Protein: LuxR family two component transcriptional regulator
Amino acid sequence: MELPIENKEIVFLLADDHSIVRQGMALTINEIVPNAKIYQTSSLQQIVEEVQVKGIEIAIIDAHFPGGNSLHILPQIKSVNPDIKILIFSGLEEDLYALKYINAGANGYLSKLSEEEEVKWAIRSIIHKGKYVSAVVQNLLVQFANDPNAINPLSHLTKRELQIAEMYAEGYGNLEIANHLDIKQNTVSTIKKNIFDKLKIENLVELIDLIKTHHKI
Structure:
């Protein structure tokens, strides 16, 4: 008779640059899968190598590392191991980022703001069904089916706002943008405020991240 899935030795990889997040997730996995084999890494660069060498079956990966987004390595992970199941566990806003990661190959997106029960549900769901669909993601999928543009927050910007947002992302300052576009510096400041308001962000770091995620793929 076959063992229930939780009694098997499932090989996990926890990839997050915060040790406390990995330790908490490891404890939760051990509660659900007592025989789990758990590897850990804090490095974005090591993830693909770990998957290749360690026979990882389920990878729980942060969306953002000091070295950049994990978005771009998801297709690599899948090409190294097409059967791997990937759960993104992230502090980035689910409604802005989840579908990007799922489209890139993730099997689920779990917010770090989730309650413990939701985290356990997500792990069980990835183990049993090979995917985890939160209520937020379900809602996004319905929105996306009705209006593919609704998912990309940059689609709310005007052409000029997007042009200026890109220039900020490339490292230009207000004065350089004003000179380049032949407009007043306070006009640039006003447009910058509009961009931040529309995207619900507070600083340039967040803007650069959004541009990288939604515009440069």
User: Anything to note?
Assistant: Residues 5-145 form a domain with the Rossmann fold fold (CATH 3.40.50.2300).
